[in-house]
Design a protein that fits this description.
It is built from eleven helices and four strands. The chain is mainly alpha-helical. Helix 4 crosses helix 5. The termini are far apart.
Length: 257
């Protein structure tokens, strides 16, 4: 699998290009980095995503730009809408395989692969628990963590690009750093809410799934940084969420600060 494919599967939605203040834009994984040396046909993946966006908006009567994969959007917390979302996501993945010749598309991490394939039974088991807690976690945790990350990065104007190149690497790493900070903040905030709303056994399973999602995402981008030779630029907030933080005493020390 090329470096382009590794990063492309982290793409959440087809998005527009804009330059806006940080607080006007939601922190979500809707950007990617493509090295110039890669020969993969970016247009092919783009066409698959455009088709997915069209089908998504037609099926759910909502803008794909309004959808987010973390925290889990209410759309995937409903039984019927979850099944339809997974059907559309699987069609997009098959498009990557058939049209773009990416035979690893169904085996690499992506938000849809995570809940629709890798952890489908686990997600289905705790879906109702997360749905019950979602109104509170959204108001309390989502808003709080978003505002906190925005405050820390108040001088940073975010440019919402679908593709970052080497000249944009600093902005790309900054976006990753803010996203990982948001995920860590949200996880810490949501735990007591879920424990209050759900039965003990179910709350434990729900928190475990969310923690796994965050860690798998961090591991995925960590792998790319290692392969691409960019480990020095790998944001500390993402390092603390990856498997490396569990074994590296330096990262463990950073995580306790």
């Amino acid at each position: 699998m090329g470096l382009f494919q590794l990063m492309f599967h982290q793409l959440v939605a087809v998005i527009f290009v804009s330059l806006l203040p940080c607080q006007a834009m939601r922190l979500k994984r809707d950007f990617m980095y493509v090295p110039e040396v890669n020969s993969t046909d970016a247009g092919c993946f783009q066409r698959c995503n455009v088709r997915f966006q069209h089908d998504f908006e037609y099926s759910f009567n909502m803008s794909a730009a309004s959808f987010y994969d973390f925290p889990f959007h209410p759309l995937v917390l409903g039984y019927n809408t979850f099944l339809l979302y997974c059907k559309l996501a699987e069609q997009r993945t098959q498009c990557y395989v058939d049209q773009c010749k990416d035979n690893s598309a169904d085996t690499v991490f992506s938000p849809s692969n995570f809940i629709c394939s890798f952890k489908r039974s686990h997600f289905t088991e705790i879906r109702e628990c997360l749905a019950d807690a979602e109104p509170i976690t959204f108001l309390k945790c989502d808003n709080h963590c978003h505002d906190e990350i925005v405050r820390r990065n108040s001088g940073h104007n975010r440019i919402r690009l679908q593709v970052f190149s080497s000249v944009d690497i600093t902005r790309y790493e900054s976006e990753l750093g803010m996203l990982c900070s948001f995920q860590a903040c949200y996880l810490q905030c949501m735990v007591p809410v879920v424990e209050e709303v759900c039965a003990p056994a179910m709350s434990h399973r729900a928190v475990d799934l969310v923690r796994s999602f965050i860690q798998w995402h961090a591991n995925d981008i960590s792998d790319w940084h290692a392969i691409a030779g960019h480990m020095e630029e790998f944001p500390e907030s993402c390092q603390r969420l990856s498997d490396a933080a569990q074994t590296d005493p330096v990262l463990q020390l950073i995580g306790r600060q």
